[in-house]
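Cont'd.
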Amino acid sequence: MVKSHERVDDLQLKGLQIIQNPDWFCFGIDAVLLADFAEANKRAKIMDLCTGNGIVPLLLYGKNKGARIHGLEIQPEIAEMAQRSVRMNKLDEVISIRIGDASRVKPEEKAHSYDVVTMNPPYKPIGGGIVNPTDHKAIARHEVTAGLETLIESAAYLLNSQGRFYMVHRPQRLVEIVTMMKKHGIEPKRIRLIYPKAGKRPNIVLIKGILGGKPDLVMDPPFFVYDENGEYTPEVHRVYEDIWK
Amino acid sequence: MVKSHERVDDLQLKGLQIIQNPDWFCFGIDAVLLADFAEANKRAKIMDLCTGNGIVPLLLYGKNKGARIHGLEIQPEIAEMAQRSVRMNKLDEVISIRIGDASRVKPEEKAHSYDVVTMNPPYKPIGGGIVNPTDHKAIARHEVTAGLETLIESAAYLLNSQGRFYMVHRPQRLVEIVTMMKKHGIEPKRIRLIYPKAGKRPNIVLIKGILGGKPDLVMDPPFFVYDENGEYTPEVHRVYEDIWK
């Protein structure tokens, strides 16, 4: 079940494990913050776009979010690895990973059929450098296969009316994100900025939107990753608590 | 020069004084933060929309920002008070206050004739409660006379190509602000969130835009007003330093 160059990490959360390939990428704090930020009850049908190794579906399941969690990943080798993680955890009844392009969800996916869409997309716009199309790491990090707008358009297509969208991205692109969400009918409702530590610019933004929602933005208190001593803050411990304990 | 119900406050900045009427309103930290946030060299021609008692033009002058600073205020009694503050400071050569509606700057003002536009507009949308049109305080706080979009449209009209727009507002309205700025060609370039203290939601947002600018957002480090002991932070002392020293 585990191939060469792969490793198995224990999520320390309900006995969950994940297969990762360090040559490609391993999940980071972004996915953990997104799974914490997303709200979903035990009946929700969730789609995780750009699911990669399936970390977000696994964490959502571990945090009792969602009845049925779908993941869509464009890179076949990575999707296949995610599928093996699902099997290893005996979660085939709950999580399903499909190989597919998140920017072209029709006709496989029915319109307005999900309660929640989560997304940890590539952060870097294409054109920011030469990208080798066979480079798994680059494809995960750059908008090689899809620009941000087509991904947001897909989320709007997939969501039920009043369905909820949760994305993690870079603050530099917040204006673009907000503009595109509004253009496609997803009203930004909540923003959480993640600051590496006091005195530093935020380097991660979490944003929640509601399809067809009314304008009414809530901005969360500042979230710091490290305190002045370079230790994780209590906030980080809270987010990771299930995973670490 | 000073009428009944009015008082004169020393800005502790180059000997500047301001006439205020506490029955209407007195300037707050918002204006001080805006004057700190706005960038303008000694040659810049500046327009301060919704100038109120003229605090922003006075602070900009005190901070060596701008060659010629204009202020526009819709309420005649308040504009007249601001004009007396300018005279009291012998700044008629530098600051000029005009009575006028910031949402209708044509034809008095020439298009694209300012390097910098600053604005500390009413924060509350009209419709949020009954507002007495003769209530100076309410008019200063509610969008009685102009919605936010018409004010942003005025700023876009007034600014030179690549001219800079600086506004202070409430974070709840950030999505609207960003959307309207983009609609009128002012690209959001920098956002500074002001948090009352750690663990609290931001209650003030400062935003910079450039007319015709390229998308490229910078988010500033978090700015806290109070520390954990309820004392002003060093950041606040830095912003006020000219005023307080």
